[in-house]
Design a protein that fits this description.
The structure holds 4 protein chains of 4 kinds. Chain A is an all-alpha fold. Chain A is built from 6 helices and no strands. Chain B is an all-alpha fold. The radius of gyration of chain B is 26 Å and the shape is elongated. The chains are: A mainly alpha, B mainly alpha, C mainly alpha, D mainly alpha. Chains in contact: A-B, A-C, B-C, B-D, C-D. Chains A and B meet through helix 1, helix 2, helix 3, helix 4 and helix 5 of A and helix 1, helix 2 and helix 3 of B.
């Protein structure tokens, strides 16, 4: 057990705890905020795993953009402020069981395969901006461009969806 | 450092994400659950990328793509949620049942097994046969 | 065109014209009478040719391939067919002429006349057919004509009922008859009658099979000729117009059964047991029908029962191997029974009722009818010199001979026939006298139109009466009627050349003992009737007391059939409909309902709860994975 | 392929083309010309059928002629194989005739729900399927045409049918299509078994093989599946319950085609496919087939005896008549099968005529029930009543009319069944069928008595006088009347065709 194990373990605990709060909190806005904590902790994990660039992207995009959009979504759907009792379904026990079972299956599978493996983090960082940038624009440039197309179409789609309903409101 | 630690964390995140998707009634919270699951996957991808010392850094590249796609997904998802909210004034998934196989569906123009003049539910199409006969003299 | 073909096609053509061009009565009458006249001319020509030097011819007009024994559209001409054909044509002609005035005002006359023509064609087909299947066609077409003609007055319930009954009862016999034909045809390898006759010499088929087959044929005979136990339709069939009764239900169609036995006589001769059964059935029918005739209030029903009784005489004659005698009686009976019916029709026409008790004293108003009917009744009783006497005597003599020569399979059968036939003479005399007295004597009737009938009705009466008087003589010499009838026996020469050898002709002259006995017995019957009528001037049938209603209902056979056959059939029919709905239908319906219920149950889970869909999906996936692991682990 | 082979192909293409043309002519103009156009196309098809009859070599009726044999789906070894022999030729002519008469009849008489364009188009499509079924010589092609018939018939019943108090036209149509589809599904299973064992769908090859290469057990299974499927269409008791409803609901021409041509597909399939392809299996199942046929005869007769609706009555009578056909087939003798084929054609003509007449009566009274029609039709519409009585008499199998020969030969076959079959059983069946023949006469005459006869005062009160047979009715009916008489007095016309073919089929001749 090295120090890195401890660090990533603690970050993991934070991430899991925050995720749990996202899943069970009774306050909608809190859920979004707990999500920030969780994502940040995951970014920390990335850092530990020497994927620096990804960590910052994680913070920028997820924490900076996505959670903000989610908060907008909550506001636009008139989310109540304060605790709400029926945020979860009555039959959540079944959902919980299934979730635990899914987790158990995954963890079992992973541990059975890689239970004793260790990561060698010595040497240069695996994911600093140089490394990642080089790889992306050499090996992954075509998918990267396609992703940009996807983003564009998602943009158009989102506008179309919102506009269609906007017209209705106008008329 | 042990590979097991990020693996366990990712599995737990994924399970929690599943729970959120399955159990939460608010559509935005369900989307958050999806984000959790995506993050779990991202963590795995990065962990394996580092573990395997992949020179192409497939894991990291994919993670980047996933993040991008997640951004697109959340944008579209919220647009849909908003459209639904405008249409039915709620985003409570328990109340959104338009996909249900309704008994009183509006379209019966086509040749449907239920005769349009079906006045009784239990009487099946073929079942109606039982009621007919020439009465014996 | 051979005479046989012409005799069939001419009336058929007349029927076709009559049926398709339903024109005015006058034109229809011209076609019908014209057709009958031509038919008569053709058959008369044939008959004369037959008398001069005999006719024997058989021609096939085509094969009916069917994969087994060939059926042939074959017609034949011989003494038997020539003799019966001219009788049919003569009666048909008389009836067509008679009908012109009898039914002249009836709007249904055109179709009526056409059906009579069709009937004539069918009967001619039966008479001339040389193939059993072809014969069957004529046989059944006669039946359907009978059905339509009996139901001529279809607005009357009795007529409707009687038509259906007549067809159905005979059809029962006809189906058995058809099976008999199958047996005969497949057993011998041919349906052609002249070929069958050739085969009889060799072993046609196993004795037992032959007995069964001939018994089946007999069922058809019994049905058509209204013998026990299928006699019930004939009295009811009197609901038809009287000329129809005269033609179909007295002279011709009912005689077709007798004719058939004669036609296939070689086959029947080979099955002695069948002949014995035939004789016994005929004997019982003979007496029973005569007794029933004794009490009928309806003049036509009296004659109908009398017909049954007389047909039984013919069949009894055939049963005791008195072939020529049976045919002789067939011919004379055809003449005098047609006469009786037409005369009865004249009475009904004038009086306006069928019921004997409402008639009386008609001899002054209708002298021609009185005289002709008296002749007819005398012939029926068997009083010399009228034809009935000779033909009936021939039967007695035949039975007597059968007793003596011991040719019958069972010795007591000819005895039985002879005794019963003698007793029946008494009863016959009694009912004939009763009819005569009630109709023409006494003073009770008040006719609707108190005058004699017109010439078109009188003419046939006179002609038939003349025939009735004279016809008996032809049996007196064996080179007359028996020779004309000339039952040709086909024999196979060694070289395979077929030749026609006339069978030995029998003398049909009356015997001394039987003549005296029968006359005495007839006198007793007539005398008793006359005495009882003298004393009370009431219906002599009253004397029978409690027996009367039983006889009136024909021994209750009708109600027995009603209880045993008709009502159960109706009950089964009603039950079938219910079963079709509640058992067979319900099984189908049930399978439909079950699948729809199942569908509804599955459908209930589709309630739009996406999260549950997903939950179940994931749970399923987990289970599959776990199962796979477990399977891999073991 | 012979030079005249185009006839059969054209016979299928012309009505299909007609259907398309009628459906595509637009607007009200299309509605106006649809019915004459339909009659013209039907007429051309009939002419083609007649040409086929003329081109047919009657001296070789036992072999397939006018063949078209094209590769269709080479990957699955499917061939577009058409041809006729003495067994199918009469049915082809019958179908073309009935379809033409129905289309001609439709030019003047339309079912209530108008839409003449669609109606004519659907009728022509129906004709395509019927003719195709009778000329197909490939199992898959046979199945295809067999199914093509169902959909148009569904529309004819559901859209143009009359609902009765006891069943709606829609539900009758649904029952019809579900039941018969189920039947065909079972039938196609049998086809697949045959293909799996022999490796071909070609009927000629299969018939030549006569079951070679198939084990007895396999043959029984294949025969069971195919017979089961075809028996639904026939219909054989107890698979008949779709029939009365379908007939009661269907419009006149629908009933005519249903009874006259559609039912024949079932029995034709038995003779064409089951019998030659799996002879051993057929032999095992034949006694059951015959027994069920006879049950159908008796059952149908009894059901008719208590029936109070004319159309239902004729429908049930079809169950009885087809029972005779089944009995004939089950004897596996030339006589029985000839009889069955004869009865098939005769039933098509006679029952077609009956449905025409009853349809006419229904149009005049608005009802086909005894009570609705009233009595004394002889007085109110003498010609109509006379034709009804004629058809009834023909239907009861009167010798001298077409119905007799089929019935008689069937019974003749049962008297002396194939040597592999239990004779005692067949004699019993023959006797029972004879009883059925008497009962058939009973209910038909009872019907005539109930409808045509009766006190004139009892005639349906509102309709003391009726329009008698109209000119279009006379035109449509008279060919049937003439043929019934013609086939009655000259059976050699038809037997001459079927007999050699049956001999080939059973391997007993040329």
């Amino acid at each position: 057990m090295t120090g890195l194990d401890v660090v990533i373990g603690l970050l993991g605990l934070v991430a899991v705890g925050a995720a749990l709060m996202v899943a069970v909190t009774r306050q909608l806005v809190h859920a979004a905020l707990w999500l920030v904590v969780c994502l940040a902790a995951v970014a920390g994990c990335f850092l530990v795993l020497t994927a620096e660039f990804l960590a910052w992207v994680q913070v920028l995009i997820y924490v900076g953009a996505i959670v903000v959009i989610l908060l907008f979504g909550l506001m636009l759907t008139r989310a109540p402020i304060g605790p709400v009792t029926d945020l979860s379904r009555p039959r959540r026990l079944l959902a919980g069981t299934v979730a635990v079972a899914v987790g158990a299956v995954i963890v079992t599978a992973l541990l059975m395969a890689f239970g004793g493996a260790t990561i060698d983090l010595s040497g240069a960082p695996q994911g600093d901006a140089t490394t990642t940038g080089t790889v992306i624009f050499r090996a992954w440039v075509l998918p990267f461009e396609i992703i940009s197309l996807l983003l564009l179409s998602a943009l158009v789609g989102a506008i179309a969806l919102s506009r269609a309903s906007g017209d209705e409101v106008d008329s | 450092m042990h590979l097991a630690v990020p693996l366990v964390i990712a599995s737990a995140l994924f399970a929690i994400g599943v729970y959120a998707v399955l159990a939460r009634r608010n559509a935005v919270l369900v989307l958050m659950g999806v984000e959790l699951m995506l993050n779990a996957v991202n963590l795995l991808l990065v962990a394996f990328d580092v573990y395997l010392r992949d020179t192409l850094h497939t894991g990291q590249a994919l993670t980047l793509f996933v993040i991008t796609i997640a951004a697109a997904e959340i944008g579209l998802g919220l647009a849909i949620v908003l459209a639904v909210f405008r249409g039915s004034a709620t985003i409570d998934l328990d109340l959104l049942r338009t996909l249900a196989d309704h008994d009183d569906g509006p379209d019966h123009d086509g040749p449907d097994l239920d005769a349009p003049d079906a006045d009784e539910d239990h009487d099946t199409t073929i079942g109606r046969q039982a009621q007919r006969s020439g009465s014996p003299p | 065109m051979t005479p046989a073909l012409a005799a069939i096609l001419v009336p058929a053509l007349a029927a076709l014209v009559g049926l398709t061009a339903l024109g005015r009565s006058r034109r229809a009458a011209a076609v019908a009478v014209g057709g009958a006249l031509v038919t008569f001319a053709v058959t008369a020509g044939t008959a004369i040719a037959n008398v001069v030097d005999g006719v024997a011819d058989s021609a096939s007009y085509g094969l009916i391939p069917n994969g087994t024994a060939p059926m042939q559209v074959a017609l034949r001409l011989d003494g038997l067919s020539a003799t019966v054909a001219i009788m049919v044509a003569a009666v048909a002609l008389a009836v067509q002429i008679y009908s012109v005035s009898y039914l002249g005002g009836d709007p249904r006359y055109p179709s009526y006349a056409a059906l009579i023509s069709l009937f004539t064609a069918a009967m001619m087909l039966v008479v001339h057919a040389d193939d059993l299947i072809i014969l069957l066609i004529g046989w059944e077409v006669m039946g359907i004509c009978s059905y339509f003609l009996v139901a001529h007055h279809w607005e009357l319930r009795d007529a409707r009922r009687a038509g259906v009954k007549a067809f159905l009862v005979t059809r029962i016999g006809d189906i058995a008859f058809m099976f008999g034909i199958f047996g005969l045809g497949l057993g011998s390898g041919t349906f052609r009658i002249s070929d069958l006759e050739l085969l009889v010499g060799d072993d046609l088929m196993a004795g037992n099979t032959l007995t069964v087959v001939t018994l089946l044929l007999l069922a058809g005979v019994v049905g058509k000729s209204a013998q026990l136990p299928l006699q019930v339709w004939l009295p009811d069939a009197m609901a038809g117009p009287t000329p129809v009764s005269a033609l179909i239900h007295a002279a011709t169609m009912v005689a077709a059964g007798v004719f058939l036995v004669a036609r296939l006589y070689d086959v029947f001769l080979a099955a002695a047991a069948t002949l014995a059964v035939l004789a016994v059935i005929a004997a019982i029918t003979m007496l029973g029908a005569a007794l029933a005739a004794l009490v009928q209030p309806d003049i036509k029903r009296v004659l109908a029962y009398s017909t049954i009784s007389q047909l039984a005489y013919m069949l009894a004659a055939l049963g005791v191997q008195a072939y020529e005698a049976g045919m002789f009686h067939l011919i004379t009976h055809g003449a005098f029974k047609a006469l009786l019916f037409l005369a009865a029709g004249a009475l009904i026409h004038v009086v306006g009722t069928n019921l004997l008790p409402e008639m009386g004293g008609l001899r002054r108003i209708m002298p021609v009818t009185f005289v002709t009917m008296t002749i007819g009744l005398a012939a029926l009783i068997g009083i010399p010199p009228f034809s009935g006497f000779f033909s009936k005597e021939a039967i007695f003599v035949g039975a007597e001979e059968a007793i003596h020569d011991g040719s019958a399979a069972t010795a007591w059968v000819p005895w039985f026939v002879l005794v019963v036939a003698m007793i029946t003479v008494t009863v016959t005399a009694a009912y004939a006298t009763r009819l005569w007295l009630l109709a023409f004597f006494g003073t009770r009737s008040a006719p609707a139109q108190p005058h004699e009938v017109g010439w078109t009705m009188r003419g046939p009466l006179v002609v038939l009466a003349t025939t009735t008087v004279g016809l008996g003589v032809i049996g007196l010499r064996n080179d007359w009627f028996p020779a004309w009838l000339d039952r040709l026996t086909f024999t196979v020469e060694p070289a395979g050349i077929t030749d026609l050898v006339p069978a030995e002709a029998t003398l049909l002259a009356p015997g001394l003992v039987t003549s005296i006995a029968s006359l005495v017995l007839a006198a007793i019957g007539a005398g008793l009737t006359y005495l009882s009528w003298r004393r009370t001037t009431a219906d002599p049938a009253r004397l029978l007391g409690r027996l009367e209603p039983v006889l009136d209902r024909g021994f209750g056979v009708d109600s027995l059939y009603d209880r045993v056959v008709v009502r159960p059939a109706r009950r089964i029919a009603a039950a079938t409909l219910v079963a079709d709905r509640d058992v067979v239908g319900a099984a189908v319906t049930g399978s439909g309902t079950v699948s729809q219920r199942l569908g509804a149950a599955v459908r209930r889970s589709q309630d739009g709860d996406l999260q549950r869909y997903l939950t179940v999906l994931l749970a399923g996936t987990v289970l599959v994975i776990v199962a796979a692991w477990t399977a891999a682990g073991t | 392929m012979s030079a005249e082979a185009w006839v059969l192909l054209a016979m299928i293409i012309v009505p299909a083309l007609g259907s398309a043309v009628v459906a595509l002519v637009p607007g009200p103009r299309g509605d106006r010309v649809a019915r004459p156009l339909g009659a013209i196309f039907g007429g051309i098809t009939l002419v083609l059928a007649v040409v086929a009859v003329l081109a047919f070599d009657h001296d070789a009726a036992g072999t397939f002629q006018l063949e078209t044999d094209l590769s269709w789906v080479p990957a699955l070894d499917l061939r577009f194989h058409l041809g006729v022999d003495g067994i199918s030729l009469p049915l082809v002519l019958l179908t073309a005739l009935l379809a033409f008469l129905c289309l001609a009849y439709t030019t003047r008489v339309m079912p209530k729900a108008a839409q003449p364009r669609a109606f004519v188009a659907v009728l022509l499509l129906l004709e395509v399927g019927l003719l195709g079924t009778f000329v197909a010589l490939d199992l898959v092609l046979f199945f295809l045409f067999f199914e093509v018939v169902l959909i148009p018939m569904w529309f004819v019943i559901a859209v143009w049918g009359d609902s009765t108090p006891s069943s709606t036209a829609r539900s009758a149509a649904n029952t019809f299509i579900l039941y018969t589809l189920l039947g065909s599904a079972v039938m196609v299973l049998g086809f697949l078994v045959v293909h799996a064992e022999t490796g071909t769908f070609d009927l000629v090859a299969l018939a030549d093989g006569a079951g070679a290469g198939m084990a007895r057990g396999t043959q029984v299974i294949a025969a069971l599946a195919m017979l089961g499927g075809l028996a639904v269409k026939t219909p054989m008791w107890p698979l008949h319950t779709w029939l009365p409803d379908a007939h009661t609901a269907a419009p006149t021409v629908g009933s005519v085609l249903l009874a006259g041509a559609l039912l024949k597909m079932g029995t034709y399939g038995m003779v064409r496919v089951v019998l030659p392809v799996v002879p051993e299996g057929t032999e095992v199942l034949a006694p059951y087939l015959g027994a069920l046929g006879v049950v159908g005869i008796l059952y149908g007769s009894f059901a008719c005896l208590a029936q109070t609706d004319l159309k239902r009555l004729i429908a049930y009578s079809s169950v009885g008549h087809m029972g005779f056909v089944l009995l004939g087939i089950s004897t596996l003798t030339p006589a029985g099968i000839n009889g069955a084929l004869y009865a098939n054609v005769a039933h098509g003509l006679i029952t077609g005529l009956l449905f025409f007449v009853v349809g006419g009566i229904k149009d005049r009274h608005g009802s086909s029930s005894f009570d609705g029609v009233g009595r004394a039709l002889y007085a109110r519409a003498p010609r109509l009543a006379a034709i009804l009585a004629f058809a009834a008499v023909a239907s009861l199998g009167l010798p001298g009319l077409a119905g007799f020969w089929g019935e008689m030969l069937t019974l003749l076959g049962a008297y002396d069944p194939s040597s592999a079959l239990p004779r005692g059983l067949y004699l019993t069946l023959m006797t029972l069928a004879g009883v059925g023949a008497v009962l058939t006469a009973a209910y038909l005459l009872q019907t005539v008595r109930r409808v045509c006869q009766g006190p004139i005062a009892d005639a349906a009160p509102r309709r003391s006088s009726l329009e008698d047979v109209s000119s279009i009715e006379a035109l449509a009916w008279s060919p049937l009347v003439v043929l019934v008489v013609l086939l009655g007095v000259w059976p050699g016309l038809l037997l001459g065709l079927t007999d050699p073919a049956v001999a080939t089929l059973l391997g007993t001749g040329g």
